């Protein structure tokens, strides 16, 4: 009988430990600790392509740019990430919807609309491919493609690897982003900056020339993807150090996603910020140009 009670006691202890373990895991999931775990490779690799596209919903050629970016993503998979900045032209004719202060600043800094290019145009890791101070490439006809520039970037060695995880609390709308970067070689340039961009997919609206990119046409509307919403690290990123070989950067950021985003050039027009459609893009720059490496954060929800 005593032996029986001893065995029963062991079973009860084991059961209690099992339930305790379950409760612990549930708590970890609730506070997002497991979801924000990040492992960054310490093996040297090549750059991930960051396409930053300047676009507009009233621009008839802009769907070609979206199509070309989609083709690069299909070709390179995880080695390509995209951010779309909707910008207005000098006469405000090509984009009224979805414009942002940050996109407008980049539009001017990179000399896109009103400068040497028109929209659509794109930067590829903010690298100057033109032999001048300009770091954008204009796309004006259906005979162009983004692939040649992307192929050049993805073949370049990266001095650092970057990885990230993000989680959104649907009750509080709080976004947490955990980033790690590991330098496999000495960083180039005097200052490296960490940039975190929030983008939104599945924004339904109008688009001139939509038929050029039928994959994003839904009935009479156009599905706008990779739409820039905010920088968690400011317009030009946050300086990081050290950037010598063997250095590890480990940072966590929080940001409360508003209920909607208001366009800066279309009165007070706003679009809902749908949490399920949000993604986070992380990249490191040398000063404000020359993207060292980039990634898309693994996203989870609480």
Task: Write a short abstract of this structure.
With 302 residues, the chain is an alpha+beta fold. The chain has helices spanning 2-31, 62-76, 101-109, 147-154, and strands at 45-46, 49-55, 80-86, 121-124, 137-138, 157-158, 160-169, 174-183, 192-200, 203-205, 217-218, 221-224, 227-231, 238-240, 248-256, 260-262, 270-272, 278-286, 289-296, 298-301.
Put simply, the count of helices is: 4
Principal-axis shape: globular
Helical residue percent? 10-25%
Tell me the major beta sheet.
5 strands, antiparallel
Instruction: Give, in order, the helices and strands.
Output: HEEHEHEEHEEEEEEEEEEEEEEE
* Fraction of residues in β-strands: 35-45%
Strand tally is 20
In the CATH scheme, what's the topology name? Immunoglobulin-like
Distance between the termini: 48 Å
CATH architecture: Sandwich
Roughly what is the average pLDDT, rounded to an integer? 85
Q: Which CATH class applies here?
A: Mainly Beta
């Amino acid at each position: 009988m005593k032996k029986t009670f001893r065995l029963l006691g062991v079973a009860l202890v084991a059961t209690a430990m099992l339930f305790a373990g379950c409760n612990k895991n549930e708590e970890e999931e609730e506070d997002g600790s497991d979801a924000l775990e990040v492992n960054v490779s310490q093996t040297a690799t090549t750059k991930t392509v960051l396409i930053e596209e300047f676009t507009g919903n009233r621009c008839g050629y802009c769907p070609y740019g979206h199509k070309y970016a989609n083709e690069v993503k299909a070709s390179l998979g995880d080695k390509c990430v995209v951010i779309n900045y909707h910008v207005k032209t000098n006469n405000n004719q090509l984009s009224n919807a979805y414009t942002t202060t940050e996109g407008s600043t980049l539009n001017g800094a990179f000399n896109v609309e009103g400068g040497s290019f028109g929209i659509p145009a794109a930067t590829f890791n903010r690298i100057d491919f033109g032999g001048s101070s300009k770091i954008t490439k204009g796309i004006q006809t259906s005979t162009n493609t983004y692939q040649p520039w992307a192929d050049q970037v993805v073949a370049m060695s990266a001095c650092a690897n970057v990885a990230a995880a993000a989680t959104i609390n649907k009750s509080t709308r709080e976004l947490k982003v955990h980033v790690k970067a590991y330098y496999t070689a000495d960083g180039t340039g005097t200052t490296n900056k960490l940039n975190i961009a929030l983008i939104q997919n599945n924004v339904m609206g109008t688009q001139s020339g939509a038929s050029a990119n039928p994959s994003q046409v839904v009935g009479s509307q156009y599905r706008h993807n990779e739409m820039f919403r905010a920088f968690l690290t400011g317009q030009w990123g946050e300086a990081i150090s050290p950037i010598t070989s063997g250095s590890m950067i480990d940072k966590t950021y929080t940001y409360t996603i508003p209920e909607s985003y208001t366009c800066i050039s279309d009165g007070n027009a706003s679009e809902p910020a749908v949490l399920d459609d949000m993604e986070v893009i992380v990249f490191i720059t040398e000063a404000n140009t020359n993207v060292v490496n980039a990634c898309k954060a693994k996203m989870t929800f609480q």
